[in-house]
Amino acid sequence: MSTTRAFVQSLPRLRVKPSRLSRSIAQHVQSRSYSKLSVSIPKRFATKSAPSLRIPSLSRPLSTSSALSHGHVDPPKPGEELYVTFIDKEGASHKIAVNKGDNLLDIAQAHDLEMEGACGGSCACSTCHVIVTEQDYYDKMPEPDDDENDMLDLAFGLTETSRLGCQVVMTPELDGLVVKLPSMTRNLQSSDFK
To answer: Which has more confidence, 158 or 20?
Structure first.
């Protein structure tokens, strides 16, 4: 139990006039040997003879962690680059050098390609749906898990080689991957079911 909480719980119910309040608290603190505890008394209750007391804050310290920038990818080091090609909705091809470990959603957003990623890459929507153009590359990818398959069921233009871009992580085996963005995406929201 914290010193402050112990002090507060051990205080008797004080029935003193406001002018004597600070003196009563000071005497109680000294009698209970709370020598390191300090109490802050409002000026209107303080007397000249009472020592200045202060109670430490009961609030927890604030801690923060660094925010991850969604869609941010670092350029690959020379000799370590992998390549992925996106074919956009208009049929234009975009060949991009990427790092091992980058996912297709972050890569597309970092290069201003039209891939929404409404859920922020948490596999909770189908707006980062991509179509792998070559079966060989699709076979090199890990099998989609149940969550990804559930979201793919909602995707527009689903094919046998459809994947969610947020779940496709670049590896050396996928160097040269070509994916096509579907002509539309479907973003279902709870408001769509009212």
So the answer is: 158
Of the candidates 186, 181, 184, the residue with the CA atom closest to the CA atom of residue 165: 181
**143 token code pair:** 């099998």
Radius of gyration of the chain (CA): 31
Give the chain's largest Cα–Cα span: 87
- Residue (of 73, 30, 68, 22) closest to 48 by Cα position: 22
**Reported confidence tier of residue 54, pLDDT bands at 50, 70, 90:** low
Q: Is the dihedral of CA 91, 95, 96, 98 positive or negative?
A: positive
Tokens 């279902």 correspond to what residue? 188
- 159-to-77, 122, 145 alpha-carbon distances in Å: 34, 21, 16
The string of pLDDT tens digits covering residues 66-111 is 544 555 688 889 999 999 999 999 999 999 999 999 999 999 999 9
Are 37 and 55 spatial neighbours (Cβ–Cβ below 8 Å)? yes
pTM assigned to the model: 0.61
- State both tokens at 119: 């859920």
DSSP three-state, residue 122: coil
**Structure confidence at residue 190 (pLDDT):** 46
Distance of alpha carbon 41 from alpha carbon 50, whole angstroms: 10
CA 52 → CA 36, 39, 40, 42, 116, distances in Å?
13, 7, 7, 10, 60
Cα separation, 163 vs 187, whole angstroms:
16
Quote the CA–CA distance of 175 and 169 in Å, as a whole number: 11
